[in-house]
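User: For documentation purposes, I need each entry recorded in a consistent format: the amino acid sequence on its own, followed directly by the corresponding structure tokens. There are two entries in this batch. Please keep commentary to a minimum and don't merge the entries.

Assistant: Recorded as requested. Entry 1:
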Amino acid sequence: MNLKNVIIFIIAAFSSITVKSQIDASNANLIEYQLEAYYNDFVTNKIGAETIMSYKNIEGDPYLYKDFTEGTIKFEKDKNIVGKLRYNMYSDEIEFIYRDNVLILVYEDSFSGIKLGDYNLVQLSYPSDNEQNKPGYFICLAKGNYDLLCKKRVSFLEQEEPKIYKESKPGRFEKNPNKFYLKQSSKELYEIKNISKLKKYSAELASMIEEYSTENKLRINEKSLTDFFNWLNSK
């Protein structure tokens, strides 16, 4: 059984897993499972996991957090899995460790998002440069009637061969500028390339931008957009 089928089977069998702990009385319906315990009953032998690129001798790293960080996989019906996770921005995948193996999480429809450190991640389909409707992870910066999503990206630059009077350069990861998107209910992602394009989304939004801009400078960066969307969703 390959990795994807194993994890899909795990999700299907979710209801049969022993509960590890229950949150306080105010959240009595919220159940948390440890990632290790969650997979233990199903992963009894070494899995032939997908090969993960070795980053040895490469400068920099492609991770949101370099080290595996405590994370929570959220389900739609008040059930969570907690464990050590890591988001690889280059491969656009969530990794986790199970018995010294680094495995790739298969994101299922039953998930409602992932909390990783200070970030909330969701997986959505979006048009990419090479493929239409490619699933990818986005960081949710503001949530409400108008969701603000951020796509963090990393490029890999190949090793440069030595030249006359110039030493070779090792391969390296390089962070790219963030991309920002607006998401409203079931509508498609709308890329926020500049303020003028954001105004074109709707007459209502254009009016709100004008109102906000009378006292605030709106820019295309994480803090400025987050402040605006939080203000917008409070109206």
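Entry 2:
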Amino acid sequence: MSQPSIPKGTRDFSPEEMAKRNYIFDTIREVFKLYGFRQIETPAMENLSTLMGKYGEEGDKLLFKILNSGDYLKGISDEALLERNTNRLATQISEKGLRYDLTVPFARYVVMHRNEITFPFRRYQIQPVWRADRPQKGRYREFFQCDADIIGSDSLINEVELIQIIDEVFNRFGIRVGIKLNNRKILSGIAEIIGESDKITDITVAIDKLDKIGLEKVNEELASKGIPQKAIEQLQPIILLEGNNQEKLDTLKSVLQASATGIKGVEELEFILNKLQIIGIRSQLELDLTLARGLNYYTGAIIEVKALDVQIGSITGGGRYDNLTGIFGLPGVSGVGFSFGADRIFDVLNQLDLYPKDSRQNTQVLFVNFGEKEEEYILPLITKVRRAGISTEIYPEAAKMKKQMSYADANKIPYVAIIGENEMAEDKIMLKNMVTGEQKLLTVDECISEIASH
């Protein structure tokens, strides 16, 4: 019989790993709530009509499609099957797909529930998403996203607050990060001044890969998309722009003066950077013109975050998407948001060993089981200990003491409570510290105080 397995790009998580993941989710959730965000959830699957065309051509290829229920080939002719046109067949045999991110489902949610929502609407969402990507280090086919979005307001104060949230979360984790900032209007302005406005998507998809494939390959991809050599040459100094943030802004004001759209993007970035300078954040913040994120729905600010001490891809990203709800029939509703990549943050915290010790701990005390008489004495005590907020177990059967102690060791339970005939006679508990080996004879209230103090 063959060994069972799981699909590539997915993972099982042990109880210890789940304790770590919950530390991540709880930390992010606390900060979201601190900034006034409210939680929603959406289904794992959406209608393909909701998802298709929202992520660009490359994104559409990465959607997991779900076969229709029952005889999904019903109504498909033999000629169509023999033609083997997979794109056409997919639309006929699949009406639903697993969500690719949480932003598009959120836009769909806003349109469907617009009469129940008070704008501006600040929502957060912590759920898994799926992408039919090639699995590699830091890249999974199933992973969690932790999104925060503000919709129904075009104020740039929202971008400022989202960057503050990013800074606060990573400060709580102890992860040093670099926050990169760009604006889609600047990218549009660049395409405009080199005379290639209709190729804005091709340009942004290509330059977004600069870190991964290098300048030469980016230029090759631009050429392959039909962008003239002269235009590619004009792009070089813009892509490789140097200096501090203010110097970059000053250069862009000069370069983009003929583009009203480009200048608008520069002004928006300047507003955000000035406000953040007044507030003061702890993370590095850099204006990076190569940041495009390759997604069709961004229209303003673009944000991406990378860990400085670990080689891994983006661990947070987002931006403004003014036109997204318009796709679903609700035009004129501006939104901005971002997503924490929980699985990559998990990997970063593991590599840097930054988890607090109490995040890994589950059961705090194990009651040893000597038999039925002791069980009946112990059960009311366990109830009292649990009511004091202390995670407690009783070993389920009267096994040998060595086996029960080994169980506590294997599960990293810091205290073992031993109650035999002598302890019952004195109405006391022998509490053993499994780390130091120290034993104390205590009342149940003293046990609670001892465990709670550590």
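Summary note for entry 2:
Residues 15-34 form the longest helix (20 residues).
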